[in-house]
Amino acid sequence: MTERLVIVGGDAAGMSTAAQARRFRDAADLEIVVFERGHFTSYSACGIPYWVGGQVRERDHLIARTPEEHRARGIDVRLRSEVVELDISGGRVRSRDLASGVETWTGYDQLVVATGARPIRPRLPGIDAAGVHGVQTLDDGESLIATLTATTGRRAVVVGAGYIGVEMAEALIRRGFEVTIVHSGPEPMATLDPDMGALVRDALCGMGVTVIGNSEVTEIGTGADGRACTVVAAGTEYPADVVVLGIGVRPETSLARAAGLPIGDHGGLLTDAAMRVTGHENVWAGGDCVEVLDLVSGMHRHIALGTHANKHGQIIGANIGGGYGIFPGVVGTAVSSVCDLEVARTGLREKEARAAGLQYVTATIESTSRAGYLPDAPVMTVKMLAERITGRLLGVQIVGREGAGKRVDIAAVALTARMTVAQMTTLDLGYAPPFSPVWDPVLVAARKAVRAVEERG
Amino acid sequence: MTERLVIVGGDAAGMSTAAQARRFRDAADLEIVVFERGHFTSYSACGIPYWVGGQVRERDHLIARTPEEHRARGIDVRLRSEVVELDISGGRVRSRDLASGVETWTGYDQLVVATGARPIRPRLPGIDAAGVHGVQTLDDGESLIATLTATTGRRAVVVGAGYIGVEMAEALIRRGFEVTIVHSGPEPMATLDPDMGALVRDALCGMGVTVIGNSEVTEIGTGADGRACTVVAAGTEYPADVVVLGIGVRPETSLARAAGLPIGDHGGLLTDAAMRVTGHENVWAGGDCVEVLDLVSGMHRHIALGTHANKHGQIIGANIGGGYGIFPGVVGTAVSSVCDLEVARTGLREKEARAAGLQYVTATIESTSRAGYLPDAPVMTVKMLAERITGRLLGVQIVGREGAGKRVDIAAVALTARMTVAQMTTLDLGYAPPFSPVWDPVLVAARKAVRAVEERG
Description:
2 copies of one chain form a homodimer.
Chain A: E1 3-8, H1 12-24, E2 30-35, H2 48-52, H3 67-72, E3 75-78, E4 81-87, E5 92-97, E6 103-107, E7 110-113, E8 117-119, E9 132-133, H4 138-150, E10 155-159, H5 163-174, E11 178-182, H6 194-206, E12 210-212, E13 217-222, E14 228-233, E15 236-239, E16 242-245, E17 249-251, H7 254-258, E18 283-285, E19 292-293, E20 300-301, H8 306-321, E21 334-338, E22 341-347, H9 350-355, E23 360-368, E24 379-387, E25 393-400, H10 408-416, H11 421-424, H12 441-456
Helix pairs in contact in A: 1-8
């Protein structure tokens, strides 16, 4: 008998689930229906800054797989079709065709909630004015590019200094704009400790970006034409020909919440390791709408990242397909770049360690990502957190140039393996002058962290 | 009472030992005497190709710390002073001042053997002719640069296609030479499996390098002036205005062997994890003259690499100083580059796995080191070996361009932690479009390896 799998949301997690389930079970065995309220499937939201910046020439290059390609594999993708209710006890979902307004109930044997995240959009005066842009969807990107092309002004204000904010700063620089970043924290990149964020601020300033910290935006000022023309923050007006919002996202779980599915403290759906929604045999969830286990702190957190969403989809698809996969959790790795600056983190920063009840020492070192005697060897700073007494690695933050960012993976694997900083000092990392000093900067940081653990006790 | 530490060899392992021991114990407590037969201390032999290639402008940039700097820390460095005998039962070494020929006995409480490695120099006709150069020491580099500067010819032949050979090929290209590499294996980079070595050959050919494999060199032909003018290999003569030998090295253990110290199957000294020579309470050894434990195969091997030598020195120095350090072993990581090509390996290649009695499956994938939609995303190939049945990671080989090589560190840490390829599929690696596709190539290889393990059983 044919089972029906219904997937709510057709981006990374949803479509990975569909594709993987289909590899295991053919259409006679498993019908797959995907409801997507937007126009696209399987696109790289992470690629939008590079499209806006001009490195990616066409929108369609960001689409990994079109609806037609999915349909050719026997996946019934329904675009512009929004699920408006999950009836868990009834085993069905209610969807609305956005063109006609017609609503339909569709029964399921297996349900996957992959509703993603929604951008944080504070209810401020002027927030909906023309010239104010989010960068969450391809439609957002298209609309922003239209504004950037049409405007003759050159002043751009980015609200938020997280990774979306700084990536958008680069895109706007590439398009010839003068960029001001306004953000509420003490330093940009609040995913880093402030001492490391300060290095990012210095680098941004060196690129000609104006960085305004400790400034909550209170209003978007509009002109006589109704278009945004200033950003008001902490009592100061910053002139703006275009405003980009990069404040972050929250799990989109309104449907799930209304249906009584379990929601965690960070607003995301709760699942077991197989990505099955807690307490529901045939309901699964993955991607930006779920919370995940942080393997370092043992606590849950919400991380919206395409790489996790794809993994979730693979795992859910395998499990529905009769294979087996689990998502053990994350260590909180993130890497981003602004022009030639590379910024990365994994594990816990100081605030997160404290919140998890962990006592720690820190070690910060400066080194280079190539042998120091090579010309222009790029400087990089590594900060390491290690647990007091045990010396277990708790986190690493990196700010540097070429070759710095992806070194965070060394620490990501070490965190997964619960290594101590002492164990890390003898890691057999790749060494050759174009790639590293004879002591890799991560090893130098580990050595200093060992001493810090010894001194603190 | 003052103890005396005698160190034989003043490069990476020896001088790291001296510096670290001095951090723990002052001159009143520990006298440190270093015998070095050459003119230099603490130099980067790995940097020689970049000096020859012109990226490093001066020889002295390759010297991390001069004899004077060491002496200022109370380390008695004796240059041009060669140890000619180790008297272990007598607790003393006999040294010869190379200028005067005068020999002296010096007693020790602690002895460190850091005699390094010697380049393989086959006894061939013409091998000692002018125009034939090794690249092991700073003197070698100086002599090669003099030849390259003086010669009007533009034809260079490199003998050997290991990492020294290919790095020298790049240096010679940078100096405007036409480069031919002659080597005895089926493919260049014998530290890779031949299928991956073939990718290196293709790339070298693409750079205009002529690569001649399966060709044992039998003679260096010399002209009427006595200078090298051809390399003869497998019956063919290759014209050469300069010949560079990059055939590899062997542990320099003649003194240790004569003194009855334990030597392993690969010709290196045997030590315990603290780098104490097996069976000798007060004799230590480190760097290119020792064998190390391979954590993947459980067997010993010889690896000449500055990064290990520095670690050994730190550990020996700490242990002599009253601190504590161990060198658990290596996983066999190496990375090198030729122009924009990046080549890396860690763990076991097929031949090594077989020699260790391990059954394995392989998975090879092609991906890119950035998101594929970014312009000119560099292609990279990853080959992974996993143990049959258990799925334990056994090795990774990478051939690619920018951003490819140092990804080997992910596998190096995973090997150290004895991860399975299934565990690797959910590693939380840094993702952003300028750094990686949404599935990092190492994860893609791990997924394919998981399937190979399942299929093979």
